[in-house]
Design a protein that fits this description.
The complex is a heterotrimer of chains A (about 290), B (about 170) and C (about 550). Chain A has helices spanning about 1-20, 55-70, 100-110, 110-115, 145-150; strands spanning about 45-50, 75-80, 120, 155-165, 170-180, 190-195, 200-205, 210-220, 220-225, 230-235, 245-250, 260-270, 275-285. Chain A has a domain at about 40-155 and about 190-235 and about 255-280: 3-Layer(aba) Sandwich (Glutaredoxin), CATH 3.40.30.10. In chain A, strands 6, 9, 10, 12 and 13 form a five-stranded antiparallel sheet that branches. A three-stranded mixed sheet of chain A has the order 2-1-3, covered by helices on one side. Chain A has five helices and 13 strands. Chain B has a single domain (about 25-165), classed as Glutaredoxin (3-Layer(aba) Sandwich), CATH 3.40.30.10. The chains are: A alpha+beta (about 290), B alpha/beta (about 170), C mainly beta (about 550).
Chain lengths: ~290, ~170, ~550
């Protein structure tokens, strides 16, 4: 017993030492040069937001910052959803940013009840657990770390997009080519979104003067999907490395959208875990 | 994974069914109103019964119950020699309020503080008020959750019952 | 899989342990537990804003099992949310074993592996606790050692990770707490000194807590190890009690403080004087950038390490509790006073059965800050208040027993509640409310009691005026029946002047309770202790069962 007590005292000593030694006082600099590693992997950053959400603009600014730091490696989609995206009948905040796709994602990932702003980086779960307890909704301050870790992962497949677009008829022909760099899972989906950038409209912004901003630039707004919220299944049971799958889509872009500001975002996701494996974008008009 | 865990739960219950339930008070450290650390293994009353009542300053029925018993406590003590421990689960917000609260009302109970609900958890108490009656041998023989005016009469009957086992 | 195996071995070892113990003089162990279930069916009601719930019925339930055998304790909790009741975080989803532990105590040493709850001092820098009714549970998972090396010295150390819904938080928490009861220590040197008979008691305490979370942030340079320290002092005499605790935290940039690198601190002082029938108490608190969590990206009630409850009085009636104050961990300064007097039986104001009078005042302001424009964020004056009033309330309560059968309570309260700042919303401004409550309790006979409450709140802001009427009839020892109507008669929007009526009854036998309720629940904050959660409006039938065994 005596021995046990002595060892426990030792344990206390170790704890004390640990806690004291464990002090990282930062006196500056507070930021570091971002080291963007080379690689083909691109990251989908989804920003769930709403024009009634006064705490959301800082998250949007974080997305823009990450977009510019990781030029071309991070692709941002802002999805307006939940009661924060509900509209007034007339006047300010009456523009409807909601989409059926956003509603479906909201329901599936329980976004409304978790509260906004929230985001997902490649729809990755925080601890890699994709069971029913999976948790992938991140507060915006956690996005950058998550992106940095995702960028270090191996590229599973290459996505290349090519299009032909007629600005008068607004008809779009889109070709998607998927090239597997390593063996692919059976249950994969290809999802194709239409995104419109810089829509000027009302936004609530706590701490900003005025609080209701009439000419807020809503960036990267998800408009619709060319193939539903969860996309099309990629045929073939096991996709061996080197295999190439091609898909084509034809659609007419609604005149409600400014075609100069529109771009297409396509991504491949594991349909069981909803993890995004690769993402690519292309502008309607270069 | 889930099914396995449920099986485990079942196994756990089966394993424990073979165990006798004796109902002793678990030994947990709480605080007295004078700041001293008090181990509940030391809840003794010279072979006479003990009542443990979980309460909080913000819990209305708890205060009702302790107020009702306060008027009767002297008589109960004369007849049965019972000692009442009123365990407050008030957290840091209110724990400094407990002593003035008790003194103003003139309660004569032994007051204990359980600010992080350690004793409450050890006795598997859910919502408060929750009352335990412990006989002279230290066995829990009766417990009651909630309070409705008049419940103190039932508690007193049980208390008499544990003094004279023939009175039920 | 490894985890499952470990858990299996852990539980399968119980009967063997019990067997081994049986051979000893300790005898067999004991098993106890409790069970609680709450279910609600949801109907749509557009006037109160009760939305459609696709599952129609939702249920939260849990069961605890605890095994004790001599010095050995072990237990577990099974939780199930199919799906979580409205107002609970949806990340409570599904069923699992969420809590399991084993504790071994030997003389002055206690060892716990698995989950545990712990608090250092008043919790300024560390409190791991559960409030099941609010969905709060930041239980530790790891190891805890408690050790009493000599009389009057209490040491505790913890290491582990905190619970985050059905998972664990990222940060590793390490902590150490020491408490010195000077009277007890003295008694070891002076055997004739009896600490229990001392007129004055002095207690000193100190704690330190550190958290580790990796810095994977590509942009910011973040402290991976953040430490906090706290010291406390308590003086107790027969009539007087003084407690103070101060806490300090090194740079801890986080989501909630906007990633500033400022130090944090908190000071809590409380003093009270009480004799039989009279008490006077005062407390003050200053909190500055003291939101301490084991994950810098956590928000709402998740992964909190610091516990900073409000010091204002905790109200129990519905309308006084309508606007509950919650501490602003990023910055607040406030104080509270209470005087309570029990007019003796037979005195002029006491009447035949005595009268209990209480007056209470509390106040909280923001800090007086100056923005620095750099990573430090701001500087704050220590003793001066900021000019934004966050909360204030002045309340009087008189409890008067008129006859052995009839007891009445009168409450009046004036409240100022800065809704925008406290609830982090905008456009609501500050609510000024006058609230009055009358309560009577009439004992029909030794078993049957009738109780009624009439409450009124007058305010021009927010939802406007409210009136509440409650009638309750209890038959000891088994039954209760209650009817409640909350009427928002002063709502500026005429269509929203709704009645929120509900009825309930319950049956209690020993430690088992059944409660059935039906009616409308207004949107509002449910608070237990000092912590609140927002409950959306709902309408429907509810059932709750709880039992301790």
């Amino acid at each position: 017993m005596k021995k046990m007590k002595n060892s426990s005292l030792l344990l206390f000593g170790i704890f004390v030492a640990f806690t004291f030694a464990a002090c990282d006082e930062i006196t500056g600099p507070y930021t570091e040069e971002v080291n963007v590693t080379e690689g083909g992997r691109k990251i989908l950053l989804e920003d769930f937001t709403g024009h009634n959400c006064g705490n959301c603009p800082p998250a949007g600014l974080e997305a823009i910052k990450l977009d510019s730091i990781y030029k071309g490696r991070v692709i941002v989609v802002a999805t307006h959803c939940s009661f924060f995206a509900d509209t007034n009948k007339t006047g300010k905040l009456s523009y409807n940013f909601k989409t059926p796709v956003g509603d479906e994602l909201d329901k599936f990932f329980n976004i409304e009840t978790a509260g906004l702003p929230k985001g997902m980086v490649n729809r990755q779960a925080v601890d890699g657990d994709y069971g029913i307890f999976s948790n992938r909704l991140l507060n915006y301050t956690a996005w950058s770390s998550s992106i940095a870790m995702e960028l270090n992962k191996k590229t599973a497949l290459n996505l290349s997009l090519s299009k032909s677009y007629d600005t008068l008829s607004r008809n779009l022909n889109l070709d998607v080519e998927i090239e597997y760099l390593e063996k692919g899972n059976i249950n994969q989906q290809l999802v194709v979104y239409l995104v419109e950038d810089s829509i000027i409209n009302w936004q609530k912004w706590y701490g900003h003067i005025p609080e209701n901003v009439p000419d807020f630039a809503h960036r990267h707004v998800l408009r619709t999907s060319l193939n539903g919220a969860w996309g099309d299944r990629l045929s073939g049971s096991v996709k061996s490395a080197g295999r190439i799958i091609s898909k084509s889509y034809t659609t007419t872009i609604s005149s409600k959208y400014k075609q100069k500001k529109c771009y297409i975002v396509a991504f491949v996701q594991n349909n069981l875990t909803k993890e995004v494996l690769q993402v690519e974008e292309i502008k309607l008009i270069e | 994974m889930k099914a396995k865990k449920i099986t485990l739960l079942f196994l756990f219950i089966c394993a424990l069914l073979s165990v006798n339930a004796q109902n002793k008070i678990p030994a947990v450290n709480v605080k007295t109103i004078d700041g001293a650390t008090f181990n509940t293994a030391n809840m003794v009353n010279d072979g006479k019964p003990i009542i443990i009542d979980f309460w909080a300053t913000w819990c209305k029925p708890c205060v009702q119950e302790l107020t009702a018993i306060a008027d009767l406590y002297e008589d109960w003590q004369k007849v049965t020699g019972v000692k009442i421990y009123a365990v407050s689960i008030d957290d840091a917000r209110n724990s400094a309020r407990v002593k003035p609260f008790v003194n103003t009302r003139g309660w004569e109970y032994e007051i204990l503080l359980d600010p992080n609900a350690d004793l409450k958890r050890a006795l598997n108490v859910g919502d408060i008020p929750h009352t335990f009656l412990i006989n002279g041998k230290g066995e829990i023989i009766y417990q009651h959750a909630g309070y409705a005016p008049g419940d103190e009469n039932e508690l007193y009957e049980k208390l008499l019952g544990c003094i004279n086992p023939e009175v039920k | 899989m490894k985890k499952v195996l470990a858990v299996t071995l852990f539980y399968l070892s119980f009967p063997f342990l019990a067997k081994a113990q049986e051979m000893n003089k300790f005898g067999a162990g004991e098993i106890h537990g409790n069970f609680q279930m709450m279910a609600q069916n949801y109907l749509v009601d557009s006037t109160i804003g009760a939305k459609e719930v696709s599952e129609k019925i939702r249920m939260n339930s849990f069961a605890n099992l605890n095994y004790i055998n001599g010095n050995f304790k072990a237990g577990m909790r099974y939780e199930s949310y199919e799906k979580a009741l409205l107002g609970f975080d949806p990340r409570y989803n599904g069923s699992d074993i969420t809590y399991r532990y084993a504790t071994y105590t030997n003389d002055d040493l206690e060892f716990t592996i698995g989950n545990y709850y712990e608090q250092f001092g008043s919790g300024l820098i560390f409190r791991s606790y559960e409030e099941r009714g609010l969905g709060i549970d930041n239980a530790m998972d790891g190891i805890r050692v408690k050790y009493k090396p000599t009389a009057g010295v209490y040491l505790k150390s913890v290491i582990g990770k905190q619970r985050f819904y059905f998972a664990k938080g990222e940060g590793i928490v390490r902590g150490l707490d020491a408490e010195f009861n000077l009277n007890e220590i003295l008694s070891t040197f002076l055997p004739e000194f009896n600490p229990e008979k001392a007129r004055y008691t002095y207690i000193l305490g100190g704690s330190m807590v550190g958290k580790y979370q990796a810095d994977n942030d590509p942009i910011r340079i973040l402290p991976e190890n953040v430490a906090a320290f706290a010291g406390r002092f308590n003086f107790i005499s027969d009539k007087f009690n003084f407690y103070t605790e101060y806490a300090y935290k090194i740079n801890d940039p986080s989501l909630t403080n906007g990633f500033i690198y400022k130090k944090g601190e908190a000071l809590f002082v409380s003093a009270n004087y009480s004799i039989k029938g009279f008490s006077l108490s005062a407390s003050a608190k200053r909190v500055d950038n003291m939101d301490f969590r084991s994950d810098r990206n956590a928000d709402v009630n998740n992964l909190t390490m610091s516990f900073l409850p409000a010091i204002s009085k905790q109200h129990t009636y519905a309308l006084p509790a309508f606007y509950p104050y919650a501490t602003q961990p990023l910055g607040e300064i406030g104080e509270q006073f209470e005087l309570s007097y029990n007019f003796k039986k037979g005195s002029m104001l006491g009447g035949k059965y005595g009268t209990l009078f209480t007056v209470n005042f509390s106040n909280a302001n923001n800090l007086d800050t100056t923005q620095t424009g750099n990573e430090q964020g701001y500087t704050a004056a220590f003793f001066t208040k900021g000019d934004i009033l966050l909360y204030s309330d002045l309340n009087f309560e008189v409890v008067k027993k008129i006859s052995p059968k009839l007891k009445t309570t009168y409450t009046y309260m004036y409240q100022v509640f800065n809704k925008d700042k406290v609830q982090n919303v905008s456009g609501y401004g500050t609510v000024f409310a006058h609230i009055a409550v009358f309560e009577m309790q009439y004992k029909i006979n030794s078993k049957k009691t009738f109780r009624a409450e009439l409450q009124s709140m007058r305010t021009k802001q927010d939802f406007g005026d409210w009136a509440v009427a409650l009638a309750e009839y209890t038959v000891s020892p088994h039954w209760f029946f209650a009817a409640l109507d909350q009427y928002n008669y002063g709502n500026a929007i005429v269509e929203k002047r709704a009645h929120y009526y509900s009825g309930s009854f319950g049956y209690t036998k020993n430690a088992t309770r059944f409660i059935v309720g039906y009616g409308k629940q207004r949107e509002g904050f449910l608070c237990v202790g000092g912590v609140c959660r927002l409950i959306p409006a709902s309408y429907g039938l509810s059932l709750s069962i709880s039992s301790t065994f």
